[in-house]
Design a protein that fits this description.
The structure is a single chain. By secondary structure, the protein is α/β, with parallel strands linked by helices. It has one domain (10-259): Rossmann fold (3-Layer(aba) Sandwich), CATH 3.40.50. It has helices at residues 23-36, 51-55, 67-73, 101-106, 114-120, 139-147, 165-178, 198-211, 224-228, 236-239, 244-259, and strands spanning 10-14, 41-45, 82-83, 89-92, 128-132, 150-156, 184-193, 215-221. Strand 6 (150-156), helix 7 (165-178) and strand 7 (184-193) form a beta-alpha-beta unit. Helix 5 (114-120) packs parallel to helix 6. Bound molecules: adenosine-5'-diphosphate and magnesium ion (MG). The site of magnesium ion has 4 residues, from helix 1.
Length: 263
């Protein structure tokens, strides 16, 4: 195993192979929250659906290079980094081209380490690097988990919330053993919490019972404003700073900083 070191404060992958659990929403709003709190943050979109890219207001033609070229074409990551409308928040965009990358990567030497290599070569330092993962456990997610120091797992407060979690945890353990011994599970984030339903409370109880301190205290509520913000290309803090969702993601960013000794 070749150890690839990066110079960044912390590299966090946001992963869960289930779609629609709040990965991209958390990547955007935690990233923006940390940047607005004075950190230098890089968000790397590794989902071919590019929700973090569009959610930050980027359309096709707004950017030159994408993560696809970093992963498959050995493009230096710096050439793909774009400033966003949020000061100190930078983005490596994704696009649908990435859909073929899982297959194109298969035949590459060190195919699991392309992102780790890319990040190690980034010329400037970021306090936090956030990797928004696709909804699968394929090679792209393996690349993200190999490049990361930590993984954050969003869990939706819904039926079947815990389904698939065993598989995810098994994959994380495999990566720790075979590719990245430094990887740790930093936290589980409960998303789309609804105060009015018994079900939400049950999921919170189950997750806290199972994960203990690993579960974040901050609960992300289900709110329409959080679902609307991406179509305006803005993090919730810019779109509607007075909303419940904005408050929740501010709290989440503060909790993240505390847990990293940066309070
Ligand atoms: N807390 C929330 N309340 C309401 N809608 C949300 C919330 N978080 C995410 N959404 C919406 O749910 C959908 C899935 O969220 P997303 O972050 O894209 O999940 P993932 O990246 O895990 O697929 C999106 O349409 C998003 O806008
Ligand atoms: Mg997503």
């Amino acid at each position: 195993m070749d150890e690839i070191n990066h110079q960044h404060g912390v590299v966090v992958a946001i992963a869960n192979q289930k779609g629609g659990v709040g990965k991209s929403t958390t990547a955007i709003n935690l990233g923006a929250g940390l940047a607005m709190g004075g950190e230098r943050v890089l968000l790397i979109d590794t989902d071919p659906q590019a929700n973090a890219t569009s959610g930050l207001g980027f359309r096709r033609g707004d950017f030159g290079h994408t993560i696809y070229e970093v992963l498959v074409g050995d493009l230096p990551i710096e050439e793909a980094i774009e400033p966003t409308r949020v000061k100190d928040l930078f983005l490596v965009p994704s696009s649908i081209d990435l859909a073929g990358a899982e297959i194109e990567l298969v035949s590459r030497f060190s195919r699991e380490r392309q992102l780790a290599r890319g990040l190690a070569g980034a010329p400037s330092r970021y306090d936090t690097v956030i990797i928004d993962c696709p909804p699968s456990l394929g090679l792209i997610t393996v690349n993200a988990l190999s490049a990361a120091d930590e993984v954050l797992i969003p869990i939706q407060c819904e039926y079947y919330a815990l389904e698939g979690l065993t598989q995810l945890l098994k994959n994380i353990a495999l990566i720790q053993t075979n590719l990245n011994p430094r990887l740790k599970i930093e936290g589980v984030i409960l998303t789309m919490y609804s105060r009015r339903t018994r079900l939400s409370a049950d999921v919170v109880e189950q997750v806290r019972g199972h994960f203990g301190e690993v579960a974040y205290e901050t609960l992300i509520p289900r709110t329409v404003r959080l679902a609307e913000a991406p179509s305006y290309g803005e993090p919730i803090e810019a779109f509607d700073p007075g909303s419940k969702g904005a408050r929740a993601y501010r709290e989440l960013a503060a909790e993240f900083r505390r847990r990293h000794g940066r309070a």
